[in-house]
């Protein structure tokens, strides 16, 4: 893609910051990897090295939620991106913009709608359902159900219909 120079390294790091900035949500390592690999922006090992270097230099931070680690931009990274964005080739920015436009909804569902369950006893499962926006839970429901089948079905339905279900719950709760 570029000549192997220090400018190439800087542009690749800027690309990672650009992706996180453009998508406007924090991403897991696997989600960042998916964006980078599907757009053939750099190889996997370079990507991991750049993420590590961005963390070490405080351009990225991470936090854990529901057993997953999310990468987040810092003020320092946003300032650097604003200052050096012109160094990212416009055709690559456009490629990323198109990809994010087509895939943002899917990524949002992966990061903002959460559903899982755990077995408590032979006939008891706890289902944990959440909708999160900007790292803040909008709704968090724990349900006790009698079977693995029910727990799986509830999780599947939540992942497909969480915005509608959330809206219905709010309407039921504010109804006079």
Automatic annotation (TrEMBL):
| Highest taxon in the source lineage | Bacteria
What name goes with this protein?
DUF4364 domain-containing protein
């Amino acid at each position: 893609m570029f000549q192997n120079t220090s400018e190439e390294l800087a542009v690749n790091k800027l690309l990672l910051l650009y992706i996180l900035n453009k998508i406007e949500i924090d991403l897991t390592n696997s989600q960042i990897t998916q964006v980078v690999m599907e757009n053939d922006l750099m190889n996997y090992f370079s990507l991991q090295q750049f993420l590590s270097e961005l963390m070490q230099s405080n351009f990225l931070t991470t936090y854990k939620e529901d057993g997953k680690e999310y990468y987040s931009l810092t003020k320092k990274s946003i300032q650097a991106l604003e200052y050096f964005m012109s160094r990212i080739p416009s055709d690559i920015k456009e490629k990323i913009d198109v990809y994010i436009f087509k895939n943002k909804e899917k990524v949002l569902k992966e990061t903002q709608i959460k559903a899982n369950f755990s077995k408590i006893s032979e006939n008891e499962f706890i289902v944990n359902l959440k909708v999160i926006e900007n790292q803040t839970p909008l709704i968090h429901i724990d349900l006790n159900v009698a079977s693995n089948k029910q727990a799986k079905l509830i999780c599947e339905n939540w992942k497909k219909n969480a915005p509608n279900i959330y809206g219905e719950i709010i309407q039921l709760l504010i109804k006079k």
